[in-house]
Amino acid sequence: TTVSTAGYSPLASGIAAYNSMIIELIVVIFMIIGATSFFLHYQLIHKRNVHCYLKDPEFLFYMFLLFFATAIIVLWGGIEGDLFHRIRFAGFHVISISTTTGFTNNFEYDHWSSAANMVLILLMLIGGCAGATAGGIKALRILLVQKYTRRELVKLLHPKAVQSVRLGNLSVTEGVLISVIFFTVVYLAIFLMSTLALLIIESIDKEFDVFSAMSAVATCMGGVGPGLGDVAFDFSKVTPLGKLVSFFCMYIGRMEIMPVLLWFLPDFWKR
């Protein structure tokens, strides 16, 4: 369940039950392997290309995200204890959430600062790398959106400049960029609409805070598992109608959105 980034455990308390740094380190290594493009693993195993990871822009960008998110939670996450203690728990949860595995080694993560909660929700949305077992938008799409944004800003300064978006040694076509931006925008739109729907549904019986709703939708769409607030460890506090929204988010997220949305086009049903 680590390599598949599923996150289930034979023990109810998961990885936290072992309380072993060695087990956590092994799990961290294979969570990253599971969330890394399997094309890179193929190059390493079959072509003996040991430098493929260091030459892959997406993998380097993904490692930067993990390091940056860990640093934020260590510094401003509200974790008590010495520096090593904070790095251990912050790093494990960042990797577990971003790879969409969903393991936890500290059940107090739900009481971390709002900044830490926001970082974890963003990691749920981004997910792992393309061509891996992880869910989410994927780091590759986020990287391309960032490169596209930079190019458009440069064009505002230099309207006559001709600048292509490059990914390593490859030039990314406009068609691919439009497809990536379209997917990202639709993913975020569904995330926001589902969050609003969950807030409305849950407000009928009881108050449901924004962090709980956002994390519930993000964790379902990304196939992560744990959330924050009222859904930190399970969805027992969510109403039956709210669970239907969660089911929809899990299904459409795992199907990469587009195949499900095609059902709503009349042209899809025409001969």
Protein described:
It is a single chain. With 271 residues, this protein is mainly alpha-helical. The protein is built from twelve helices and two strands, in the order αααααααββααααα. The mean pLDDT is 91.
Which SSEs are present, and which pair or pack?
Blueprint: H1 21-35, H2 38-47, H3 52-55, H4 57-76, H5 83-98, H6 114-126, H7 139-157, E1 165-167, E2 170-172, H8 174-205, H9 210-222, H10 240-254, H11 258-261, H12 266-269
Helix pairs in contact: 1-5, 4-5, 4-6, 5-6, 6-9, 7-8, 8-9, 8-10, 9-10
Secondary structure tally, helices: 12
Based on helices, strands and strand pairing, what is the structural class? mainly alpha
- Beta percentage is under 5%
Mean pLDDT: 91
Order of helices and strands: HHHHHHHEEHHHHH
Radius of gyration: 20 Å
- The percent range for helix content is 55-70%
**Global shape:** globular
Would you kindly provide a brief summary of this structure?
The chain has about 270 residues and is mainly α. The chain is about 60% helix and about 0% strand.
